[in-house]
Amino acid sequence: MRYGPAVRRRKLGAELRRQRELAGLTSLEAARAVGWHQSKVSRIETGSSGVKPADVARLLDAYGVTDAELRALLGALCGAGSPEPGEGAGARRGWWYAYRDRLPPAYLDFISLESEASRLSTLETTVVPGLLQTPDYARAVTRAALGDPAPEQVEELVRVRMARQAVLRGEQPLEVCAVLDEAVLRHEVGGPEVMAGQLRHLVETGSLGHVRLHVLPFSSGGHMGITGPFVIFSFPRIADLDVVVLDHLTSSLYLERKEDLRAYGAAFTTLRAHALSHEKSLEFIAGINDGA
């Protein structure tokens, strides 16, 4: 288990090493090709140091990588959301960079991964996933989670959460598959009116072709998800970049080992199989809102 930035650097380094090997170059030859010391290439490949987007581009040029999608993905994994000290002004920035001094690094890294992933699979046991929350619901959740926050802090965090939802729009929106325990739908977060609006929003968002919702009703009994929620980020074309995120009260843990990814992937598949279908889930959610 590692914290997010370390995970991202390691995965980026592993893919750069793979591209170097595909190009038939040693680390020394790669270093000479870009005018660096061999130790710099080694540090980048092991994930022990950060790397600027411009340096990733230089390496990919040296390796003859012309695939625009691959180059964009690896460039994004440089850490635009939480830049390295001394990073040049021309580095690619995500919208969340403006919040770098006010949000925890782990949250910035989570947003960065979310913005570049192609698919998000999540199990939620207590609250609606952030990407599917209404502003009022997000406001109520934030107040509850922080205890007694200042109003301006709450509003800023809600703005960030709403900005994150941009990944659900556009030409290539993030695919979301969410398994929701029935408790998520029954907790009256913010009161009946706020919750009614949130349930309506879930049904509306569930009508999008790239959002799939699956409810685990109380009648399904115990399930492997009772140990807690998790998120699986999947990336286009490179399965080795996939990450599992476990949220805790004061931090997030990122699981990157292949055995962890297999275990959580299998768990999610099982949970979805035991849950209601997408269509029946939308009916179930609408029924709760209607007082059923």
TrEMBL record:
One function term, GO molecular function aspect: DNA binding
Signal peptide residue numbers: none
Pfam families: DUF5753, HTH_31
Domain named HTH cro/C1-type: residues: 16-70
Superkingdom of this protein's organism: Bacteria
Listed SUPFAM superfamilies: lambda repressor-like DNA-binding domains
Family matches, as SMART domains: HTH_XRE (SM00530)
Alphabetized InterPro entries for the sequence: Cro/C1-type_HTH, DUF5753, Lambda_DNA-bd_dom_sf
Protein name, per record: Helix-turn-helix domain-containing protein
Species assigned in the record: Streptomyces telluris
